[in-house]
Write a structure and sequence with these properties.
Its EC number is 1.1.1.37. By secondary structure, this protein is α/β, with parallel strands linked by helices. The chain has helices at about 15-25, 45-60, 75-80, 100-120, 135-140, 155-170, 210-215, 215-230, 230-240, 245-260, 305-330, and strands at about 5-10, 35-40, 65-70, 85, 125-130, 150-155, 180, 180-185, 190-195, 200, 205-210, 265-270, 285-290, 295-300. A six-stranded parallel beta sheet has the order 3-2-1-4-5-6. The structure holds 1,4-dihydronicotinamide adenine dinucleotide.
């Protein structure tokens, strides 16, 4: 039998946590034959609720779940973890300045970076979900210098999946027949959902999404806006932010990272920029990536037209600005 993998979920008493932990315990993240031990972290005001989640995990009697650690102690939570999904954070509340929220999250990610660096298993893979996801991941990277930078990522797979969902609805086709959309940049409304390289499997072979949609106006405006604004639309409808889709996409992100992407298919991940596509190095930026043997690689050589170039730069500018703001909170 396989050794259990230890998976940390921070903010586990929150909305996404509640949707995510049963998915992990059912094998959605790491596969149906991979036993797991869940490590759940939250803060003292949520300790009782966290314990309630632990009780439900016991009650659900998941065969793959070999243990549960539920704690408000970051060191205990991080000890020995192989995968860390960082969902905990401080949301922006009415009347708060961006800088105030940034400042709180920077201090959270700084201290959790140290706990992970000191106590996680070697080669622990980190996925930051909590917003501002790219910048929180960057702070985590800066304060966990012994964790290889390739192991620190942020979630833009939800945006990627939203783009697939929109194309699927528009063309009335299966989402599983569409591939290779791209989310570039920040997990924010400045992101660029790009369909220029996306294709659809049809009875007549693989066709470009652009050729099938036959409406560049829709693709260049409404489609992009819908994906960029989808989070806000969910909040408006649910009075709560996306949770089941965020949890499911977090599972997709880790699963593909660990188990690999199918031949000829890429996915979007927020990763440490090496300067590919003239994106400034040193930002956590969403790129198209393929994964193999537990490592991601940025897809190279895609043509970027003028329209796309502007959008890649715009979201990079926003990330540089966020980075500067985060650094100003550190000093
Ligand atoms: P939530 O407010 O329901 O849950 C957050 C949890 O984090 C709470 O239980 C809170 O007590 C906990 N927490 C706060 N500070 C913590 C700390 N220092 N250590 C550990 N836990 C801590 O929020 P929800 O809806 O679950 O969302 C979580 C985060 O994910 C938010 O930042 C949200 O903006 C972000 N998000 C990101 C998405 C993405 O695609 N990257 C999509 C949807 C949400």
């Amino acid at each position: 039998a396989k050794e259990p993998v230890r998976v940390l979920v921070t903010g586990a008493a929150g909305q996404i946590g509640y949707a995510l932990v049963p998915m992990i315990a059912r094998g959605v993240m790491l596969g149906p034959d991979q036993p797991v031990i869940l490590h759940m972290l939250d803060i003292p005001p949520a300790a009782e609720a966290l314990n309630g989640v632990k009780m439900e995990l016991v009650d659900a009697a998941f065969p793959l779940l070999k243990g549960v650690v539920a704690t408000t102690d970051a060191v205990e939570a991080c000890t020995g973890v192989n995968v860390a999904v960082m969902v905990g954070g401080f949301p922006r509340k009415e009347g708060m300045e961006r800088k105030d929220v940034m400042s709180i999250n920077v201090s959270i990610y700084k201290s959790q970076a140290s706990a992970l660096e000191k106590h996680a298993a070697a080669n622990c893979k980190v996925l930051v979900v909590a917003n501002p996801a790219n910048t929180n991941a960057l702070i985590l990277k800066e304060f966990a210098p012994s964790i290889p930078e390739k192991n620190i990522t942020c979630l833009t797979r939800l945006d990627h999946n939203r783009a697939l969902g929109q194309i699927s609805e528009r063309l009335s086709i299966q989402v599983s027949d569409i591939k290779n959309v791209i989310i570039w940049g920040n997990h924010s409304s400045s992101q660029y959902p790009d369909v220029n390289h996306a294709t659809v499997k049809t009875p007549a072979g693989e066709k470009p999404v652009r050729e099938l949609v036959k409406d560049d106006t829709w693709l260049n405006a409404e489609f992009i806006k819908t994906v960029q604004q989808r989070g806000a639309a969910i909040i408006k409808a649910r009075k709560l932010s996306s949770a089941l889709s965020a949890a499911s996409s977090a599972c997709d992100h880790i699963r593909d990272w660990v188990l690999g992407t199918p031949e000829g298919t890429w996915v979007s991940m927020g990763v440490y920029s090496d300067g590919s596509y003239n994106v400034p190095a040193g930002l956590i930026y969403s790129f198209p990536v393929t994964c193999q043997n537990g490592e991601w690689k940025i897809v190279q050589g895609l043509s970027i037209d003028e329209f796309s170039r502007k959008k890649l730069d715009l979201t990079a500018d926003e990330l540089s600005e966020e980075k500067a703001l985060a650094y100003s909170c550190l000093s």
